[in-house]
Write a structure and sequence with these properties.
Blueprint (H helix, E strand, L loop, with lengths): L3 E4 L2 E4 L10 H5 L2 E9 L2 E2 L2 H15 L7 H14 L5 E8 L17 E8 L10 E7 L14 H12 L4 E6 L2 E5 L3 E6 L2 E4 L10 H12 L4 E3 L4 H5 L3 E6 L3 E8 L2 E2 L7 H19 L1
Parallel strand pairs: 7-8, 7-14, 11-12
Antiparallel strand pairs: 1-2, 1-6, 3-4, 3-5, 5-6, 8-9, 10-11, 10-13, 13-14, 14-15
Pyridoxal-5'-phosphate (PLP) binds next to helix 5 and strand 13.
Length: 283
């Protein structure tokens, strides 16, 4: 059961947690979030997630309400109180509760902090494939900020779902950015390509792990623009995220990718990923 949440210093039941209608997160989506996978009760890449959290808070000039030591204690307590094991930790920080609805201001507010846990449903034995649809990236120009303003992501992800696909892959003027909830990699002639870091994509923590693992495995990895044509003609395509790890995309709309099976590079990196996770848990 994952029904204990942390809200502004208190551990309470999920269905009892309440925020003010004047919270700027509620009124303006004036806040950021973070999602941290937890394997066997151990948070994965915690330092990197906390650094991204700091980066996002800095972009919005929201003061970080906690030191990293405090965050680690909150997360550890929440893991314990929610039964441990494999979990996904969701952190949500808004600028706080204003006196009234007003776009400007908010400098002196005390941030609202919510941390929740939910089960992490990752099948470590079998690689989870997916299919995708290719859609125009209708999001804003600060996709590097993990903003709680996810309306376009939600619309795009739902559009994919309605078409019977597990992800929406996005492009801006024919240049691939990322998925609606994930980063993108492609493989051509055993070389790996992923869009370079910019304000148009989220700097995924899983993306960074995969880049490290690919380079350690001696694969040539390019961080550069990928066109729609390159995507559709790739030998392999996969998406990455904290909750899906590496998920091969076997079909994009009507186009079968490669031979429609899990490719050898995805298979190898998925296996490296599992080994890497286990090595951290045993430490
Ligand atoms: C838009 C978007 N890009 C990329 C990612 C992957 O980021 P991470 O690997 O840190 O989970 C996510 C994760 O939710 C996302 O929402």
């Amino acid at each position: 059961m994952t029904d204990t949440v942390y809200l502004n210093g208190e551990l309470i039941a999920k269905n009892q947690a309440k925020i003010s209608i004047l919270d700027r997160g509620f009124l303006f989506s004036d806040g950021i979030y973070e999602v941290i996978p937890v394997y066997s009760s151990a948070p994965f890449r915690l330092e990197q997630h906390l650094s991204r959290l700091q980066y996002c808070l800095d972009q919005l000039s929201i003061p970080n309400p906690h030191s990293n030591i405090e965050w680690k204690n909150i997360i550890r307590t929440l893991i314990e109180r929610n039964g441990g094991g494999h979990l996904s930790i969701y952190m949500h920080i808004t600028r706080g509760v204003g006196l009234d609805r007003n776009h400007i201001g908010g400098e002196s507010l005390s941030p609202t902090v919510l941390v929740m846990a939910s089960p992490l449903t990752i099948n470590e034995q079998a690689i989870q494939t997916t299919t995708a649809t290719l859609l125009e990236d209708t999001r804003w120009h600060h996709c590097d900020i993990k903003s709680v303003a996810l309306l376009s992501n939600v619309m795009l992800r739902n559009q994919a779902e309605q078409l019977g696909h597990g992800e929406a892959l996005l492009h801006r003027n024919g240049v691939i950015t990322e998925g609606s909830t994930s980063n993108i990699f492609i493989v051509k002639h055993r070389e790996v390509y992923t869009p370079k870091q910019s304000n148009l994509i989220l700097g995924g923590i899983t993306r960074d792990v995969i880049i490290e693992l690919a380079e350690n495995a001696g694969l040539r990895l390019h961080q550069e623009n990928i066109s729609k044509e390159q995507l559709l003609n790739a030998d392999e395509v996969w998406i990455s995220s904290s909750t899906r790890e590496i998920s091969p995309v076997t079909q994009i709309d009507d186009k079968i990718i490669g031979n429609g099976e899990i490719g050898p590079v995805a298979k190898a990196l998925h296996s490296e990923f599992q080994t890497f996770k286990k090595s951290l848990i045993q430490d």
